[in-house]
Amino acid sequence: MSWQATRRASVSSLLDTTTTRSGTSAKGADRARKVLTAAHCLYNEFVVVLGTLNRFEHRNGTIVSQVSSMAYMHTFSPDSMRDDVGILFLRTGLPMSPGGGVHLTVAPIQLAGQVTPPGKLCQVAGWGRTEQSSLSNILLTANVSTIRHQTCRMIYRSGLLPGMMCAGRLQGGTDSCQGDSGGPLVHEGRLVGVVSWGYGCAEPGLPGVYVDVEYYRQWIEGRSGAPHSRLATRLLLLLPLLMRCSVSWL
Description:
Layout: E1 7-10, E2 13-15, E3 34-37, E4 46-50, E5 63-72, E6 86-90, E7 108-111, E8 121-126, E9 140-146, H1 149-156, E10 164-168, E11 184-187, E12 190-197, E13 208-212, H2 217-224, E14 234-237, E15 241-244
Parallel strand pairs: 7-12
Antiparallel strand pairs: 1-15, 2-3, 2-14, 3-6, 4-5, 4-15, 5-6, 7-14, 8-9, 8-11, 9-10, 10-13, 11-12, 12-13
GO molecular function: serine-type endopeptidase activity
Protein name: GD24717
Keywords: Disulfide bond, Hydrolase, Protease, Serine protease
């Protein structure tokens, strides 16, 4: 995948901190402010846009937030994509809907709490390139399956590092692609992966490589102030995250 696009859009995951460690509801500044993404996306300036499926349209209910800071592991390597996991901290929290509920256009999701077995059907979403080789204006989703770690290891050999997992179709035809960086891989309503890297798009025998969310769960919770593992770690799918890169269109 190419990481040098001058205009990029991706879906990431907004951490829901509306529940404290004691199980009570957080107030004001403690509301959802953290966005889970790929570390290789964390450069230059960022604007987070929620509540729209078209990356060029801001409708009634769309929320825009500046990013105050970011976090990633000091062991992250842009060359090997080791530890390609990062968090954006929003300047403003997610507004709640009337009555105190979650915002109507943002759906809650949970972090994966265990390793996802191979062969499980997942959904990946983003505004990345399609078979027409152009970025999509509308949010797209695709069905892919988790790949056995041993199979993925045989394909990518030493390039497959701890904390990485593969998903796609070994016969090709369906995959994440350029522009989907940082996007979610979801299985049965839980976030299991984050789009990281790959060779080409939807090529036979070359599945996409994702950040394994379960592998990094402790780090993610530590950075987000999420509740203990006995409590559900809740996230919100961000719809969408628009990133300013070397040439900004925002």
